[in-house]
Please model this.
Amino acid sequence: MGLITISCIKADVGSLSGHITVLPEMMDMMREHLEDAKKKGIIIDYYVFHCGDDLETVITHRKGRDNSEIHKLAWDGFVKVADYARRRKLYAAGQDLLSDAFSGNVRGQGPGIAEMTFSERKSDPVLVFACDKTEPAAFNLPLFKVFADPFNTAGLVIDPKTTVGFSFEVMDVYKHLKITLNCPEEMYSLLALLGTTSTYAIKRIYRKGPEAPEERIAAEVCTEKLNVIAGQYVGKDDPVCIVRAQSGFPAVGEVLEGFSLGHLVSGWMRGSHKGPLMPVSLKDATPTRFDGPPRVVGLGFQVCDGELIGPKDLFDDVSFDKVRERCNEIADYMRRHGPFEPHRVSEKELEYTTLPEVLKKLEPRFKHTDE
Ligand code: F6R
Ligand code: MG
Ligand code: MG
Model:
């Protein structure tokens, strides 16, 4: 019992066949690295997996958020795996490790991170979601539905523990500003921000109420923008998200229902295209068609004194087959637009890609016109 921190730290440190997948031995290397830290008592438990070309870690410990020992542990693991990827000439080896040396915190250094400290309940189901080929705001629509839409989450209407509602911390990912809005009373203002996925992303969600934040924390999203940090196109952010479920939070099934649309997100090929976010099992987290379409995997854990029991591969269920079929249909339809918006993202969103270079060459050829 007591306070537990879950740190989900991930990085793309090289992949097989372009930007498609991580090799099993890369995950094994990270597992060995974390097993050693577990034996030394630095961490309580860990789980390693991949979503597309991103190597993902889930680490539990009692050292709180932004702990430099934990961040260094993850960083050193990524450095080891990146060295291996370089030796084997895997693609984009070391891509997300933007600095040569670790500076005390992985934030702003390339890896993505979602970290949550919570007071462990009698039984604590915790879900981890990881995306490939998309950005943090991909979670805006599903998390809004899960925590604010009674047509998605029955508990918002019929469970007295959740009818109190949730508060959303929203980030302006470019200006590093944040605002907190309460639902249901400020729902329209919240949507006014969340709908602008190019600028605003949900950072944290709390259940409203008098308890301590560690009791009420419900969700935390990784909002690092890789290209903003690097100042140029490096790859997509491919965010992770932690959600607590059941007994005062939405049920696991209500959380998963939030991903049942196959909603359009930015990312996909060259981080420059809109496409459907396809919920898949771990074995299908290998985006190949046009480097996509974007994927999300979901892992269901029970946390027991910090130990991670599980996971259950949450989208490995036939009830998501229809969503996946729809995503494939949407992908077909979107692809037929080729280089045209809205399949291709807007000029503003292409700021950090190579498109400005292409456009610059045309600049001298523009002439004034009266028409
Ligand atoms: C998207 C992604 C890929 C690459 C694309 C071109 O996040 O990583 O779609 O952008 O494969 O890659 P490069 O420029 O490395 O040839
Ligand atoms: Mg990659
Ligand atoms: Mg990726």
Observations:
- The first strand starts at residue 3 and ends at 11.
- The chain has a mean pLDDT of 96.
